[in-house]
Amino acid sequence: MIQVKNLSKHYPDKIALDDISLDFPAEETTAIVGPSGSGKSTLLQALNLLERPNSGLLTIDDLHLDLANPLTNNQILQIRQKTAMVFQEKALFTHLTVLKNLTEGPIKVQKKSKAAAEKKAQELLEQFGMTELKNRYPYQLSGGQQQRVAILRALAMEPKYLLLDEPTSALDPELEAQVLRVLKDLAQKNTSMIIVTHNMSFAEQVADQIVFIDNGSVGYQGPTDGFFHSTETRIKKFLGAMSF
Question: Which of 18, 129, 167, 179 could, after both became Cys, cross-link 216 (CB 3.0–4.6 A)?
Fold first, then answer.
């Protein structure tokens, strides 16, 4: 489980996260939703310390950090070894084939053998029906294919938790559907995922729990069904604005 207690992040002109406490269970999918600029991405990136909160406690399994204190490089590394991040931008290594994109991290960072890294990469490509892409370069892929490769590249590191920051927001609806099918498959396999998303239909279908962030604070944490059938005025207004 990932847990944050009293997490705060302040900028000179804005409070991005205001004393947030949340639990993110392992082997479940949590969707983080909310209006633009509410602090969703800041919260997600705080979980693996890409964003450094000003204060609060962060627990990932057996690791416990007081974020008000300076952190060592080893502490940061320990957190990031348990997580992998996928962003809106695909950010693949443009000079490497798909296969080498998937093996670069395990070989260079985790010091796995080339054979072991390639075996894992081949398994992932087969699992998601993407074997035919393995020798292509990113410029030879569609946007949806690139984002699916980015997700597999994160999975190749075998993280305990997969963090995704609006992974389909830069895609058109057809390509978005390709990526969402991969994420739905991962959710059905009880992958531990935390996803910032604007796609309410996807969140309703796939998430085990919803976290609603509004103006840097938690407006809701709980079962997906409870969120989408909430009688709370603010949640109803948000959901109404997301449909047409």
Answer: 18
Find the radius of gyration of the CA atoms of the chain. 18
Q: Look up the pTM and report it.
A: 0.90
Question: Which pair of structure tokens corresponds to residue 86?
Answer: 């996928």
Compute the distance between CA of residue 205 and CA of residue 118 in angstroms, rounded to an integer. Answer: 33
Contact 79, 51 (CB under 8 A): no
Per-residue pLDDT for the chain (244 aa), expressed as one digit of tens each? 999 999 999 999 899 999 999 999 999 999 999 999 999 999 999 999 999 999 999 999 999 999 999 999 999 999 988 999 998 776 789 999 999 999 999 999 889 999 999 999 999 999 888 999 999 999 999 888 998 899 999 999 999 999 999 888 777 888 788 888 889 999 999 999 999 999 999 999 999 999 999 999 999 999 999 999 999 999 999 999 876 5
Tokens for 26, please give them: 């392992």
Asked if 153 and 101 count as a contact pair (C-beta separation under 8 A), the reply is yes
CB 143 within 8 A of CB 171: yes
Q: Residues 8, 172: contact at Cβ < 8 Å?
A: no
Q: Which of 173, 193, 172, 175 is nearest to 184 (CA)?
A: 193
Q: Vertex 231, ends 226 and 235: CA angle to 5°? A: 80
Say whether 131 sits in a helix, a strand or coil: helix
- Give CA–CA dist 161/46, Å, rounded: 13
